[in-house]
Here is the input.
Amino acid sequence: MRIVIAEDSVLLREGLTRLLHEYGHEVVDALGDSEGLQESVERTTPDLVILDVRMPPTHTDEGLRAAIALRRNRPGTPVLVLSQYVEERYAVELLELGTVGVGYLLKERVADVREFIEAASRVADGGTALDPEVVTQILVRSRRSGPLDSLTAREREVLSLMAQGLSNAAIAEALVVSAGAVEKHISSIFSKLDLPPSEHEHRRVLAVLRYLG
Amino acid sequence: MTLLRRIFGPYGRPQVWKESAHLLLDLAMGIALFTVVITMLSLSAGLLITLVGLPLLALTVAIGRWVGSVERARARALLDTPLPGWPTLSADGTWWQRAIRWLGDAPGWKGLLYGLLMLPWGIVTFAVTVVLWTVAWSLALYPTFGWALPGQEFGDGVHFTALEQVGLAIGGGIVGWLLVVALPYVIHGFANASGALIRALLSPGNEAALTQRVTELRESRDATTDAAASELRRIERDLHDGAQQRLVSVAMNLGMAKDRLSEIEDDHARELVGRAHDEAKQAIVELRDLVRGIHPAVLTDRGLDAAVSALAARCPVPVTLHTELPRRLPAPVEAAAYFVVAEALTNVAKHSGAHAVTVRMVDRSDTLVVEVVDDGRGGADLSTGSGLQGLQDRVRSVEGRLRIASPAGGPTTLIAEVPCGS
Here is the structure.
């Protein structure tokens, strides 16, 4: 993959560059803030943009706003947002512009290097990668609206893994059940939540998140 | 001894002397102020037809204010009555606007009225003071010098016999000593009246002064809270920019090392690096929790709603969240509400044995109401749990109220109400 990084901490910027390089990816540009991001992406046309939410000058959500602007100008540009804390609205704002190639992870997930690289590749390939904590938070939020009350505990688990961007096979593996069982759970979830079934992984995530958020 | 102390005691204290001095000075002040006020008033009234009159009148009112500060100083020095002064008049605008402001200045006009009243009042106090002191002490001491005076003749050549003179001396002495005893009290009464006049006309009075004091205290408290809050935010940012980033970097490098080591055959090294990796990740989580306990970044960046959703998501007991928070609230209010929910949820998870919690936050434009209800075993008490006590202090620091209803057997309801302006 050819990757652009925007991260204000020199330490992490260099660390990420080294990490991605180690696993055979090329960092074509590494920025310290979100200012030149647009121009850089135009120039390098990367397969993936990784950015930190909190960057100068205000150190609040520059990265997120840059990611949203980027996806508005160049729809479909895969974006992986790293955040110090989980904020479900960040995720919802990101996903509102389409779920093709979107990731939102806690920054500390980079420590589990293999999983991180996998998530990055999934996003670059047009998939999603949502932090488990984001998913939990969205589920908590939606409890007030009630539609999830009808789900069984297992179906909730499946939904949560689905929202993280896992494939059916991966869900089956994580829950130690057969792929058929997972299929059954998913169609049950869709019918309970009144969602039409769809082929694409990200569509499911979008539908679920839209419904929840 | 007690009799002597009763008679002379007050004279050994400065009070009676200072009060007498004050009452005597009342006349001097009265004459001076009356002259100045009458002169200035009639001068400016006479010139009112021309333009010069108005600024002159403004100046006269300004003198009225000045009278207030002089007299308050005198009351503080001689009557031991410290009185609060008027709030200063704004000096903004053109000199013309200032003059108009002076003309409508109630404290100034009250000062002028005081200046006029002081002359008759000063005459009274001067007379009373002088007569009382001279009569009381001369009568009291009459027996000691009466005998030395030449033979007395009263009116129509009435002559007293020696016996009658002794009786007169004794009687006068008794009356004199009674007056000596009464003098400090009479003087004190008049001094009080003098002080009351100053308080009534030249000072905003205790209630207004208390209001002003409360305003000052509130401002200084707000400043302190703000300073503390911004300091906490700074600490949070420093930790985030420094230690946290470095730990993430360490954990990432260890992760890479661990991944590399999985390809070579050295179980020991692999185990060591694996453990270091796990500990680094644990340290990140601990540091994150610590920072969150100081001041969560999400609260600053995204507000109460977002921060509390995060809390709810982390709570092991299922939380139902209802929020009506249409706007960002002042930072101290948000922080107080956040920590109320945080502490309440921690308590629910630790002690209540509850199966479900409901958190409700409603912004009623002048009050933020935070309600945490669980279906646990109850028995929570503000006076026992130190956490709850700390919460109460926190809520009080923003003038809020914390109430808790937790009968044995549950349910527990915790309600915090925090004024949040509008």
User: Anything to note?
Assistant: The longest strand of chain A covers residues 26-31. The CA atoms of residues 152 and 189 of chain A lie 9 Å apart. The beta strands of chain A are 2-6, 26-31, 48-52, 79-83, 102-106, 128-130.
